[in-house]
Amino acid sequence: LLAADGTVAASIFAEMSALAMRTGAINLGQGFPDEDGPAVVLEAARQAISDGVNQYPPGRGQPVLLEAIARHQYRFYALELDPGNEILVTAGATEALAATILALIEPGDEVVTFEPFYDAYGGLIGLGGGIHRPVPLRAPDYQPDLDALRATVTDRTRLIIVNDPHNPTGAVFARQTLELIVELAQRHDALIVTDEVYEHLTFQAPHIPITTLPGAWDRTVTISSGGKTFSLTGWKVGWVSAPSSIITAILAVKQFLTYVSAAPFQPAIAAGLDLPDSYFTHIAAELEHKRDVLATGLRAAGFEITLPQGSYFIVADATPLGFTDGAELCRRLPELAGVVAVPITAFCSPANRADYAPLVRFAFCKKIELLEQASKQLANLS
Ligand code: PMP
Ligand code: GLN
Predict the structure, then answer these.
(1) DSSP state for residue 219 in the 8-state scheme
(2) Domain named Aminotransferase class I/classII large: which ranges (predicted)?
(3) In degrees, to the nearest 5, what angle opens at C-alpha 314 toward C-alphas 216 and 8?
(4) C-alpha distances in angstroms, 3 versus 16, 124, 161, 343?
């Protein structure tokens, strides 16, 4: 976790946002929207502060939010959760991942992820003393190779970490893949941890939580967050749902990580989760339009891309433009085109970085005008 000179290594997202600040380039690197979420949710937080919801809430989360999460899981996925025992509120999905991984692995346990993987997974597996076993996702569709998956999951596997929709590739796993993951977890008595923070940002078909598949619920921990669904990434309200005994284990760790999560944002996110269906369809449709604008711009600039089915990221291959090193391209992109992106190698284990070298990630959760401007500037690359 330390850089070679002994300082704390900045995450790629912080590093690239700092580069955008320094150079004034358009920041399509770190994934955060440039418009805040719904006014009713913002107002609910202000109201909660005025109403004195400012002291430590219960460790599991405020009942008003636990109940709203349960209603949301029922409305969208027909899951019937017990809000008092099967849900835990966390400080963002990040704390949910940390508490889950630290609670569920012992040093030496193997943890399977899909590579490229969200950077926190690698760091947290390391903190827990686990052994990281990534399964590759490859262009053009970034679906896992099922034989590689079968070969990687063994009796040594404790956790399989799924991220669906997937950051950074925007892939949505096929039902057949989700079924195989459940089957392998059952066969090898592993647990599934599924990070579904982009659950409402899908463009082709409604999201399928892996925990709804036959045989999955008993061994699955589902993680989400208000950050993406409500365009409020700085609020850091996340949650976990799982069978009660697993929630108890995760809570045992959470109590020493943050103890509780921010009080006034909890009723506000509850108000968001209760918004009508039209809110959720609207955000996906709006984002799909943004995806198409940036995809058109990237293709016109000469990148090879796969249209993402979910999340707010596009992976672009810079090879046709003559760049074989995405990390170097990202360092030079502010000067070449006034744009910031993130190299995919930042989402890879050191041993496999060469396989993903020419790929870079662009975020499209930005205003249309900004995406059009970035597209215009990127045209200078060819
Ligand atoms: N998981 C994935 C896949 C992400 O992209 C992110 C980034 N927002 C997180 C987890 C972290 O979410 P939060 O900000 O709620 O901690
Ligand atoms: N999840 C966002 C991304 O992938 C930001 C995460 C972060 O800054 N740690 O860009």
Answers:
(1) G
(2) 25-349
(3) 80
(4) 16, 17, 26, 18
Cis peptide before 140 (omega within 30 of 0): yes
Structural domains of the chain ordered from first start: 12-30+278-381 (3.90.1150.10), 55-273 (3.40.640.10)
Predicted confidence at residue 13, as pLDDT, reads 85
Probe residue for ligand 1, chosen from 197, 230, 347, 364 as the CB with the greatest number of ligand atoms within 8 Å: 197
For a ligand 1 pocket test, name from 223, 228, 269, 347 the mutation site with the most ligand atoms within 8 angstroms of its C-beta: 228
In this structure, the residues whose C-beta lies within 6 A of any atom of ligand 1 are: 92-94, 118, 163, 167, 195, 197, 225, 227, 233, 236, 238
| Residue 319 per-residue DSSP state | G
To the nearest 10°, the Cα dihedral for 256, 129, 237, 80? -100
| Token pair recorded at residue 247 | 């929630």
pLDDT of residue 54: 98
Report cis status (omega within 30 of 0) of the bond before 168: yes
Q: Is the Cβ–Cβ distance between 138 and 148 less than 8 Å?
A: no
AA identity, residue 380:
N
Q: pLDDT tens, 130-152? A: 999 999 999 999 999 999 999 99
Ligand 2 lined by 94 (C-beta under 6 Å): no
Q: How far apart are CA 237 and CA 252, in angstroms?
A: 18
Query: Would you say the CB of residue 167 lies under 6 angstroms from ligand 2?
Result: yes
- CA 116 – ligand 1 centroid, Å: 15
Q: What are φ and ψ of residue 248, in 5° steps?
A: -60, -40
Distance 23 CA to ligand 1 centre (A): 26
ipTM: 0.97
Share of the chain above pLDDT 90, in %: 95
CA distance 345 to 347: 5
